[in-house]
Structures are given as C-alpha cells and as structure tokens.
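Below is a filled-in request sheet from our internal design queue. Each sheet records the structural input a requester submitted and the sequence that came back. We keep these sheets so that new team members can see what a complete request looks like end to end.

REQUESTER: design group, bay 2
PRIORITY: normal
MODE: inverse folding
CHAIN LENGTH: 747
BACKBONE (tokenized):
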C-alpha cells in the first residue's frame, strides 16, 4: 500500500473530521448488516487501503503470473504428471493429500485455461515487497464482499469517493462475463452457465456467492436442480421434463470438489450430482474451478512454487510466500483509531484480491478487502486502486466487446429449488402479514373491550383469541388458556410473537421468510434488504420486558410487508418466477381468509357480540372502507360476507384471489395438462359459485346448535386448496416438505 494519502483524499478527511468518519463507519455497518443479513467480520473502516497505479501494476502482474503457474500445475497434476519426476515437486505430500482426486485425472480442458478463479491474501512488507500469505483455489470467494464494501461506503461517505479518481469494479465483471459467455460457446455450446452453491450457514459467505453469481449473470442452483443423462448436464425446470435446450455448458462450483458427485467422489451432505464427473470427462460440461483444484492449496506445494515457476514458466516467481522462520513487519494503512481516538492511526493490513480468467489472459479485480492484523479489534476496509494521472476514464473502463446471443428458452434461469423458494416466499409474506394484522386487531379489541364487564365483551374477545389459534394453527393455544386470566393471555400472545421454534408464530414465519429471501438474492431488488433488517429488529423487540406497546411494533411489521410487496411488484419481471410467487401468495391469502371466516363467523352468537366480531373481521381484511361505501349501514355478518366472497375488485376478497390464482396457474409451463392441478381449483370454484351468504350463515344441525353451514363449506374449500398446494409441489418442485394444518409447510 502507498505510505502516503492522496492530497484530495487527505483534504476530504480533514473536512469530514473524526465524528463524521465514525458516523460513516456505524452507518455502513448497519447498511452492510441489512444487506448481508449478518454482521461484517469486523468494524467497517471508511478509510481505504490505497494502492497507487505503479504499485498495482507490479502487484497485478505478480498475481497474473501466479494464476498462470497454478493453472499450468493443475494441468500437469491432473494430466501427464511430469512434475512428479522432478526433484522440486513435493511428490509425497501431494500424493497423500486427500484433495488430490484421482477420478479427475484426464478430464479434458476447454480452452487454454483450466482455472477460472483464484483468491489470494497478500500483504506488503515494510521494505516494499509483496508477499502471498494464502491461495484459495478450490472455493475462492471475495467478489461479492468487495462490491458490497464499495457500495455501502460510497453511500455512507460519498465525499471520500468523489475526492479521488480510482478504478471502478463493475467494468471488470463486464469483461469477465463476456469472456465466460464466449468460453461456454466454444465447440457450439449455448453459453449457459450456472453457479452451484454448497451447504453452509455463514450468511456472509452465502451473500458473497450470490453476489458473485449475479455479477456473472448466472443463476444459482442447488445440486438437486441438476441431473445428468443422455450425455448432458441439464437443469430440472419446473413443470416440464428436461431436454437438450436446458443443457448446462459451464458449471461454476462454489462447493468443495469432494461434494459434487456421490457416484465417483463418495456420499456427502450436499448429495451432489450423480454422474457429473463422467459428464465432465466426456466434455459435455466444464466444471470451474476444475475438480480437485484444492490440491493447489497444499502448503508444501506453496513452498516449492519458486522452483516450479522456473521449471514450468521459465521465469522467477514475482510473489513469494513469507518465510516461516520469522514474522515479517507488514506495511500499514491509515485507519480509524481502534481505541476511539480522534486522529487516524497506521495499522498493518492484509489484502484479499481476486483473479479471474478473461478472454485472453487472467485479470485482477482492481479492488478488494483489506483486514487489519494487529492485536486490536479487527477492522475491514475498501481497497482503492488509483488511476494513473495520464489515463482517462474511457481507457480504464472501456466497454467489453459486444456478444451476439442466440435465443434462449423461455425460462433460462429458473430451477425447481428457485421456483420452490419463490412459491414459499409468497406464502410466508402473506403469513407474516395476516398474523400481524390478526394480532394487532386482537390487541386493539382487547384495549377496547378490556374495561367492559358484560358478557358481550368476553364473548367477542374469546372468539377473536381462539380465532388467532385457529388461523395460525398454533394449537392448543387459546383453546386451553383461561381467557379470564390476563397473565395467561399475555403469555400466549408473547409466545405467538417471539417463539421462533413454534410453527405458525410470527417469529417463525418471519424467520422462514427471511431465509427464503436470502436464497433469492440474485432475483429480487436490493431495496428489500433494509426492509428485512428493520422487520427483524422490530420483531426482536417484541419479547423485551420493558418494550413499547405491541401495537406500534405490529404496525411497523405490517408496513414492512407492504413495502416488500411493493418492491417485488415494481422490480420482479413478469416471468415464471413472478407467477410462482404470485401463486403462493394467492393460495396463502385464500387459506387465511377462509380460516378467519370459519373461526369468526362459523357459529352464531347474540347480536351485540356478533357485531363486535364482524367489525374486527372488517378491520383485519381491510374491507371497512369498501363496506361503508357499498352499504350505508352498520357492519353486519351477511353483508360483510357477501363483500368478502364476491367482490372481485377488493384485493383481499375470495373472488379476487381465485381470479389471480387461476390466471397465474394458466401461465405456468406444463408438458401436458395436469388434472391434479386443474381438479382442485375447479372443485373450489364450483363450490364457491354455489355459496350464498344468507345460506352460509344458517344453522347446520349436524355441527352443533350454534354452528352454521359456513363451517363445512369453508373446510371443504380449505381441503381443495391444500390439494392444489400439494399438487404444485409435486409437479413443479418436488414433494420434500411435510404436511401441516396450514397445508404444506417446510418448517
């Protein structure tokens, strides 16, 4: 790193002052946590690690040489293996390394480069020599983290980024994306690339991998989205059988090599893609980084790289590893004082940089992540690469060459797991919204009726509390709670709000919504992550003893659902993904409405209690304003039921849901018409068409003296909807979820 700070940057630092820098750090950390759904690995320091243009030329040249050397070593180790006959290779250590996959020997190359990506952790000694501390070849990462760091800091400290001309990051990925497309089109391929993720619970790593896939323009898939057969690796597309049109040319793996093929590499937690090694051996698909690339991370091999470089490339290795017998003194970068002082201090740092295969040679991402290495708390920083003074922005950020694309299938990026996630995203969004509205209305009603001593208030409140249990299926719930005991009622409400391990609770539904959303990172707007973060923070406050009243918090969560719905509506393309998410939303909203009507209007009560309950239903379904415009009368069960069942203009009515649901189902791709999909919806429509609000509210003698016909009718409709949800899982995804009273549930 440069030992001096650019004059323009130094001037801007003086203008900002220590308080503004600290504020930028905290704002960036909050924005980062919202986007990543997890904290950064250390304090975010807005002061960059600066590399001058001349320093970058030396460093990037050394990294490119290192990538060429490792690429040549891989080709030899998994090809002729001539290095084993030399005196410089650590033959014994390599042969004993479990990362050396013999089944990958002999897999043909596509093009001149075998390695696609290489991540290097480097540092500079106090005397100005760059050293490589670590190579990451099997599952390299860092691109998404670098882009996110640049994004949040440029928004939280925009003056710093306006002060200095530095090399941008997106043009680099434009060039790599073009090169990847051309690579996949070699030998007549379609150019389709997919990114395979491994199993992992680290939100930062998951975020990084999804961002990387997004930058490469490739869909993220799981192992179960792929299958081999007829000499091809194909995508499992929702609703239709795979054919050569869904063939994958390039598999960018972000999972360890050993987890990719249970047939040739053994069983793994990832399950893998049976036959993938054979498909790669036949040249039907290129796997990058290639299988067994983790062998290049062998510590003994790293020590031998200087000699191997002279033997293979006939060059001296430019970037060496530090000597193991003594720890070098690393150069420093200007940083915020970890002790809280007002003046910046110098702290030693390491840089994480990414090398990717371009069209003709390897290229280094002109930026990365710097991490402090002293004994103080860790800080992470953006890496700036300065533009040469004589250079122009046009020369640095030239547009990549245009690529002529052939027509791709209608749904090129959709797989069964992504389709299932979109479907469940829609369902969980509706669950969180309905549960929040239901609980808020119950709390409002409790406040309104709590001071009353008559039987009307107790009856209405009991109906609504038991309706919460019936709609959310959190049994036994309020059916076994003494409704006259405020403490027991409060305890049950708190559990419904905060118990993450209780299926149907608000916390569990939101947790599932957030998890599902993280898997769709490359398909939804970036604007939803701050909304998710705010909703998560609000839900966490619900269980605090000294928290504010629950009603405002529930209102904030409902506002978050509305914002998510609007962001998805305005940003998601109207393709298969939209139809699957819309189908999930309509099924869930219909289930919730039917369950609510069944629980509240399924029995007749005396007029005053029934009026209170009906008014609460109008609030929950947001139909009060429409009711007042249509009917100039007090809210009555029969009239409200008519509105909620038949008004196709009301967004929460049954007629509206069935119309939207039918339209979405009609657009889903099918190899042949599926009677298991059509029959439940047809049965539901037939049943609903015959409904009369007056008849539904008539007594049904078979279900008790106060029961109405609405009980049996809504139960039959709910059964049809559950059959439809199950058929969708079977036809478009896979029947991996288990059933619950909600229908299908994956909790």
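RETURNED SEQUENCE:
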């Amino acid at each position: 790193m440069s030992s001096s700070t650019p004059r323009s940057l130094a001037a801007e630092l003086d203008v900002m002052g220590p308080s503004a820098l600290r504020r930028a750090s905290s704002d960036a950390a909050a924005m980062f946590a919202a986007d990543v759904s997890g904290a950064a690995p250390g304090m975010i320091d807005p002061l960059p690690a600066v590399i001058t243009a001349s320093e970058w030329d030396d460093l990037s040249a050394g990294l490119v040489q290192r990538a060429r050397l490792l690429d040549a070593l891989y080709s030899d180790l998994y090809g002729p293996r001539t290095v084993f006959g030399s005196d410089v290779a650590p033959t014994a250590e390599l042969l004993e390394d479990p990362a050396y996959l013999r089944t990958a020997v002999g897999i043909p190359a596509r093009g001149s480069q075998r390695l696609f990506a290489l991540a290097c952790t480097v540092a500079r000694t106090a005397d100005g020599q760059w050293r490589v501390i670590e190579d990451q070849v099997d599952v390299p990462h860092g691109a998404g983290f670098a882009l996110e760091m640049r994004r949040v800091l440029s928004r939280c400290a925009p003056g710093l980024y306006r002060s200095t001309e530095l090399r941008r990051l997106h043009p680099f990925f434009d060039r790599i994306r073009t090169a990847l497309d051309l690579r996949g089109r070699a030998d007549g391929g379609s150019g389709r690339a997919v990114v395979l993720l491994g199993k992992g619970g680290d939100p930062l790593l998951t975020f990084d991998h999804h961002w990387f896939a997004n930058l490469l323009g490739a869909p993220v898939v799981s192992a179960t989205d792929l299958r081999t057969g007829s000499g091809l690796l194909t995508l499992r597309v929702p609703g239709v059988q795979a054919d050569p049109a869904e063939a994958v040319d390039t598999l960018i793996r972000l999972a360890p090599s050993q987890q990719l093929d249970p047939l040739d590499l053994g069983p793994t937690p990832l399950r893998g893609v049976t036959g993938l090694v054979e498909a790669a051996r036949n040249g039907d698909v290129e796997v990058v980084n290639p299988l067994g690339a983790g062998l290049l991370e062998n510590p003994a091999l790293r020590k031998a790289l200087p000699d191997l470089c002279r033997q293979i490339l006939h060059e001296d290795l430019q970037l060496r590893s530090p000597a193991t017998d003594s720890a070098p003194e690393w150069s420093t970068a200007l940083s915020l004082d970890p002790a809280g002082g007002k003046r910046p201090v110098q702290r030693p740092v390491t840089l994480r940089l990414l090398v990717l295969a371009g069209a003709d040679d390897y290229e280094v991402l002109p930026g990365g992540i710097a991490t402090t290495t002293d004994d103080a708390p860790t800080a992470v920083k953006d890496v700036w690469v300065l533009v040469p003074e004589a250079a122009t922005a046009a020369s640095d950020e030239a547009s990549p060459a245009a690529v002529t694309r052939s027509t791709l299938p209608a749904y090129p990026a959709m797989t069964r797991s992504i389709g299932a996630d979109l479907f469940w995203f829609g369902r969980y969004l509706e669950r969180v919204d309905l549960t929040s509205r239901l609980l808020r209305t119950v709390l409002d009603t409790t406040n309104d009726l709590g001071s009353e001593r008559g039987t009307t208030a107790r009856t209405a409140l009991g109906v609504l509390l038991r309706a919460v249990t019936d709609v959310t299926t959190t049994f036994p719930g309020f059916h076994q709670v003494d409704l006259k005991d405020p403490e027991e009622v409060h305890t049950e409400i708190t559990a419904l709000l905060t118990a993450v391990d209780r299926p149907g609770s608000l916390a569990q539904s939101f947790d599932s919504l957030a998890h599902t959303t993280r898997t769709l990172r490359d398909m939804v707007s970036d604007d939803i992550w701050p909304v998710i973060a705010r909703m998560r923070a609000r839900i966490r406050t619900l269980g605090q003893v000294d928290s504010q009243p629950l009603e405002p918090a529930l209102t904030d969560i409902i506002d978050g659902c509305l914002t998510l719905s609007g962001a998805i509506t305005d940003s998601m393309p109207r393709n298969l993904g939209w139809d699957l998410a819309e189908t999930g939303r309509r099924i869930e909203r219909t289930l919730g409405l039917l369950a609510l009507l069944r629980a509240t209007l399924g029995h007749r009560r005396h007029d005053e209690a029934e009026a209170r309950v009906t008014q609460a239903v109008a609030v929950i379904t947001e139909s009060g304003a429409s009711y007042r415009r249509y009917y100039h009368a007090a809210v009555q069960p029969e009239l409200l039921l008519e509105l909620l069942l038949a008004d196709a203009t009301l967004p929460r009515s049954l007629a509206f849901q069935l119309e939207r649901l039918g339209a979405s189902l009609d657009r889903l791709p099918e190899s042949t018409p599926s009677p298991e999909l059509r029959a439940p919806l047809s049965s539901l429509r037939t049943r609903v068409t015959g409904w009369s609000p007056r008849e539904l509210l008539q007594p049904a003698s078979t279900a008790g003296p106060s029961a109405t016909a609405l009980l049996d009718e809504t139960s039959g409709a709910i059964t049809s909807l559950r059959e439809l949800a199950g058929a969708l899982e079977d036809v478009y995804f896979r029947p991996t979820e288990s059933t619950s009273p909600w229908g299908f549930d994956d909790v």
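SHEET NOTES:
- The longest strand covers residues 345-357.
- Confidence is low (pLDDT under 50) at residues 392-412, 735-747.
FILED BY: M.R.
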